[in-house]
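Fold Annotation — chain and its backbone

Fields — amino acid sequence, structure tokens

___
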Amino acid sequence: MSSQITVHVAGSERTVDQGTTAAALFAEDRRVVVARVGGELVDLAHVLQEGESVEPVLITEDEGLAVLRHSCAHVLAQAVQQAFPDARLGIGPPIRDGFYYDFDVEEPFTPEDLKRLEKAMQKIVNQGQTFRRRAVSDDEARHELAAEPYKLELIGLKGGSAEDAAEGASVEVGGSQLTVYDNLDRTGQVVWGDLCRGPHVPTTKLIANGFKLMRSAAAYWRGSEKNPQLQRIYGTAWASKEDLKAYLDRLAEAERRDHRRLGAELDLYSFPEEVGPGLPVFHPKGAILRRTMEDYVWQRHVDSGFSYVTTPHLAKEGLFHTSGHLPYYAEGMMPPLDDDGQLYRVKAMNCPMHNLIYRSQQRSYRELPLRYFEFGTVYRNEKSGVLQGLTRVRMITQDDSHSYVTKEQAPAEIKHLLDFVLGLLRDFGLDDYYLELSTREEAGEKKDKFIGSEEQWAEATAILEQVAVESGLELVADPGGAAYYGPKISVQARDAIGRTWQMSTIQYDFNQPERFGLEYSAADGTRQQPVMIHSAKFGSIERFIGVLVEHYAGMFPPWLAPVQVVGVPVAEDFDGYLREVADQLRAAGIRVELDLSDDRFPKKIRNASRSKAPFILIAGGEDRDAGAVSFRYRDGSQKNGVPVAEAVAEITTAVRDRVQV
């Protein structure tokens, strides 16, 4: 019997001794933290079998970072139970840029607790503890975890339904086999353990000093208010101390750009408690910004062949049964309103009513593509815990459009819409983007949340993918991320500091035309069913504004700025002269404010700078005598003695050409 086996390492065939581990294959590269075997991530302690395909996963890759962060979550839990022996464990998954772990403790964690826990974690990391995987039966797990009530509950969720039952549960009991990970000290003694699916880094040494605890917050067990409230600790972990510092610097910059803070400073919008969470109100300056965006996208739609429509904010409940929203999207809709036994729903989508407009008269193939759009405000029943300023709201105003086309016209219409979307993003200064293709879940319980046949989904997905590939942009797969009625392309845009935001969407819908009985008369006289293409260019105007505020740090380009020019007289004697200049600018369509307050000139300049207006115009004696003004720009530079006519021309040209300054 041969003592050697053949495996495939990163595509190359290799002969190794039986009993060889993945760690032995990659021993010379300390960046390798886990391996991918047969498409699945495994610990480096995995013993290789005949014919297996093995690929290294580096600590700097997304999957490697997720494993590092999950391992760091285990170190946190160990430190918590050392400091708080009565703490009971919840769930501790990796998340974007970090991890969290939930604990049942008597008192909420304090900032001082987090500092103490960080020190305890560093000691565990420095000990170089190793992670050992052990398969256990359900009964063995229940015996070992008898003192952990939340872990016992997770055992009952084992399998594919774990993530549906509790966020993050799949990292613990997502497979068919339960496993426990023991932490071993240098003598091989078990010092701690946790129910976990894994994999983990080989040793805590790899966590090094690239981690930090960020904050703590309350969180209901399994996300339900009916369950006990636990204490969640959030942390972050990176491949190196330098990467951690870069991340913290990005966070500091993101805090400086936070649209909630800037919205208050610039007097754009607010979130009154009396109105309710997730329901912003726009102040005059914010409303100007919003109207500028609406005017822009209105004209773009008209130029692209769309007809404007309007629809009510609510409708009889039966309409949303027909559309499929109540059967498939009920949790996202607001509760019903009862009008003498007739139930109404506030709309979560505009498309059902657009379908009724299409159906209001007979249609011919000669009319197609038939395109509708509206600024439709819809309402989503978002949980209060996920609301975040303008970027996650309950009131969503969409520049919502629907194109009704023949099947043959669908590829060209999708390309038409994608070109529209990309041009819009570029005009708003978002020119770094890629595409994401969201498809339905192909297996498991979530598969039943999508309607339509496999053939319909395959055809729709293939058309979207073809257009996306032909665009030449990077295309990323998003399995399971489609709407219930069809696949979609979304444009993922990166902002000025590299964060990614989902912006515009284009969705292929073969279901609603069938559910509403939509037809058109074909060239051969037969009645055919159109295809419906959904598209939202801004996606949500509220969210788009929030992204723009952060992208520009409140310093909007001239065409978007709520106040485009602030006029500052050097002294009161020049108020009248600057009024005349402002009148000329207003006559040219420029938004101008004058500071005619009693403040001293230096304070007026500081206030004007804080307003983040693109142009500050200053007028003193020399300016007035020469019929000129002095410019002060946002970067602090200045240009003196500019004739008024030239100043008006410079500003109006910057606005007209959508100059990014």
Observations:
- DSSP finds 21 helices and 33 strands in the chain.
- The chain has a mean pLDDT of 92.
- The radius of gyration is 30 Å.
